[in-house]
Amino acid sequence: LDQTDPVPLRSSDKDFLQRVELWWSGELLPRMKPFLAANGGPVVAVQIENEFGYWGSDPTYLERLKEMLLEGFGPECPLLFTSDGTFWPDLQANGGLDGVLRTANFG
């Protein structure tokens, strides 16, 4: 991500999350906001992370991503979900959050 690499990617590492937050709040989420269903756009749901259960288990990381989405979108925040495989029981457990829709993929 910069000269201090290697930063632990996809983790609750404070340096990594700081960079994610800067990009999400400064670039990504403002660009997405006009396209949310609450604003007349087609986006009705946003996936918090992609197949994180294959990568590891870090609920603090996933929770912080969820918080960033809720903060960035405010009351217009669409449905949030996670998506993981079904090959091993721990994929869904590691890749999801309590209170967030968990979906499955088979690819």
Please tell me about this protein's structure:
By secondary structure, this protein is of the alpha/beta class. 42% of the residues lie in helices and 15% in strands. The chain is built from 4 helices and 3 strands, in the order αβααβαβ. It has helices spanning 14-32, 52-55, 59-73, 89-95; strands at residues 45-50, 79-84, 101-104. It has a 3-stranded parallel β-sheet. The longest helix has 19 residues, at 14-32. It is flat. The relative contact order is 0.18. The model has no long low-confidence stretch (mean pLDDT 93).
In short:
With 107 residues, the chain is of the alpha/beta class. The chain has four helices and three strands, in the order H-E-H-H-E-H-E. Helix 1 (14-32) runs parallel beside helix 3 (59-73).
The tally of helices reads 4
Radius of gyration: 14 Å
Could you give the count of β-strands? 3
Shape: flat
- Give the overall average pLDDT: 93
Give the terminus-to-terminus CA distance.
29 Å
Strand count, sense and barrel status of the largest sheet are: 3 strands, parallel
Structural class: alpha/beta
Assembly form of the protein:
single chain
Helix content: 40-55%
Give the strand content: 5-15%
Low-confidence stretches: none
Order of helices and strands: HEHHEHE
Across the major sheet, the strand order is 1-2-3
Would you spell out the secondary-structure blueprint of this structure?
Blueprint (H helix, E strand, L loop, with lengths): L13 H19 L12 E6 L1 H4 L3 H15 L5 E6 L4 H7 L5 E4 L3
Parallel strand pairs: 1-2, 2-3
Helix pairs in contact: 1-3
